[in-house]
Amino acid sequence: MTGNDRVSAVPRRMRLLCVLLGAVVLGVMVYVALGLKETTNTVVTYRTSDQFAIVGLGLVLAAGIVLLGRSRVDADLGGVVVRNIAVHHRYPWQAVRAVRFDRKATWASLLLENGDEISVHAVQVFDGEYAVRAVEGLRALRERARADDPVPPPLLYDN
Fold first, then answer.
1. Closest CA to 134 of 86, 80, 88, 63
2. Are residue 96 and residue 127 in the same domain, yes or no?
3. 73 falls in which pLDDT band (50, 70, 90)?
4. Looking at the predicted structure, is the pLDDT value of residue 152 above 70?
5. Do 77 and 123 belong to one domain?
6. Of 13, 83, 86, 159, which is most buried by a Cβ count within 10 Å?
7. Is residue 115, in this structure, part of any structural domain at all?
8. Is residue 131 a part of any domain in this protein?
9. Positions of E strands within the chain
10. How many structural domains are present in the chain?
């Protein structure tokens, strides 16, 4: 996960849960498809093609569930790359004000210099010590990368 100049993290428990849930969904759909015999009743005619369609739908649903766990964060001295479920961000450390992992938060976040906050779904509270090490590694990289930044002038009004 962490090296001296690199930090990478994935949501371990979330990935495991997504794979297990995807397998269950696929198993149920295959079971339903195998139980659906070729019959004709007064409303619907079931054929073998319907069985294949149900299995295909199960594959699509299982793949969608597994993709929910594809979040990842990779960082080095040049910046941080955050890949959440459908969004991909790359920021230099000069754009990151802080790496946050609040006590009641589900996942970590990056507070940007412009005031925006980006969720880091790869670092989740459910991963325990693994998540803490990832946040500490991200914070250390940020500090090392920004060590030579000029000191900002004091604010006129400090709230």
1. 80
2. yes
3. very high
4. no
5. yes
6. 83
7. yes
8. yes
9. 6-9, 72-76, 79-83, 88-91, 96-100, 107-112, 117-124
10. 2
For residue 107, tell me if it sits in a domain.
Answer: yes
Other beta carbons less than 10 A from residue 22's beta carbon: 21
Long-range contacts of 108-114 (CB under 8 A, 24+ apart): 108/134, 108/135, 108/138, 110/80, 110/82
Query: Is 154 exposed, middle or buried (CB count within 10 Å of its CB: 0-12, 13-18, 19+)?
Result: exposed
Q: Does residue 134 fall inside a structural domain?
A: yes
pTM of the entire structure?
0.76
Q: Is 133 helix (H, G, I), strand (E, B) or coil?
A: helix
Whether 6 contacts 76, CB under 8 Å:
yes
Q: Which domain holds residue 29?
A: 12-67
Q: How many CA atoms lie within 13 A of 89 on its CB side?
A: 21
pLDDT digits (tens, 9 = 90+) for 82-116: 999 888 999 998 889 999 998 888 899 999 988 89
My answer on whether 63 and 110 are in the same domain is no
Nearest Cα neighbor of 34 from 47, 22, 50, 51 is: 51
- Note the pLDDT tens digit of each residue in 5-50: 888 999 999 999 999 999 999 999 999 988 887 666 667 777 888 8
Task: Assess whether 54 and 76 both reside in one domain.
Answer: no
Residue 145 pLDDT? 86
Mean pLDDT of 67-76: 91
